[in-house]
Amino acid sequence: MRVGLLHSRVRVEEKLLLDELRALGADVDWIDVREVILDLHHPEPWQQYDVVFDRCLSHSQSLAIATILDTWNIPCVNHVSVNRICGDKVETSARLVAAGVPTIPVRVAVSDESALAAIEATGYPAVLKPPVGSWGRLLAKVNDRESAEAIVEHKLSMGSVGHGIFYIQPYIEKGGADIRTFVIGNETICGIRRRSGHWITNTARGATAEKCQITEAIGDISVRAAQAVGGGMLAIDLFETGDGQLLVNEVNASMEFRNSSQPTGVNIPQRMAEFVLHTAEQGVIR
Amino acid sequence: MQSTSCPECEATITVQNDAVIGEIAPCPECGLEFEIVSKDPLKLDEAPEIEEDWGE
Questions:
Q1: Which residue among B20, B23, B56 places its CB closest to the CB of A255?
Q2: Which of A121, A145, A258, B22 has its CA 20 to 30 A from that of A169?
Q3: pTM of the predicted model, to two decimals?
């Protein structure tokens, strides 16, 4: 089995995945995304791969490459359609709502005036997130009208068209922790609870990870969220409200797991490598 | 283990033998991040900046 491992930076995750793929007998090529040239008329260099494992850090670079691979019927994990949905919070939320998966309410607005009206309708505190982005970057907790006016003005002057799309959620009190589950195929294989004194509970921002028992409810909502975006290997972020209700916050298609294998006791990269090779056997599924 | 000087502050940056090209090696003193671009000989280049659309 020949695997192309598409990467930007080589992180702990990519090295662990390489080891696990090789342990399963795969022949793995590192492919640095910065060196990639795809000649649309010549797929031959890529047809040597039974599967391409997309670990690209950049959402736009990932989409450009995976879209072309898909037209060449070269399996890619995750499928480009899943990456497209998960890389954009507007798309993710729209799919979750359409599928009836409990999620945090979202309003979307595309102008300064409508954004302010949507924030007012949401109530304070509200949370603004860039539709594309990760690791808790550029999130804003908006506590009052004055803050909302300032943040909307700043976002519109940032120069990127993406910041003109306003993604607005109510602030959810989650007791200083959220839940990150890992779904592979139709199974929630494990989960962690991420604790932080800060309202942003990403481990990339210093939250600590501890094992989260996968109850039937947590496992079920996680799989439903994964299926709503097309399925594959997905990390689901859940909020547990004070009354015990589970809400999906985000779905991540290129999951990081360095802080999760140890507390959960689950060899996450091994399970991911198995899924990648399984996908290669199945071929492109649309 | 291999080592080289930080191009910025000249502190010693050490990388493990199993490090691979493309891996990030932070300078222990000035904190700048460097990318391993060659292992033999060990060469470091400034790591690319995190872009807006990077993430999970």
A1: B56
A2: A258
A3: 0.93
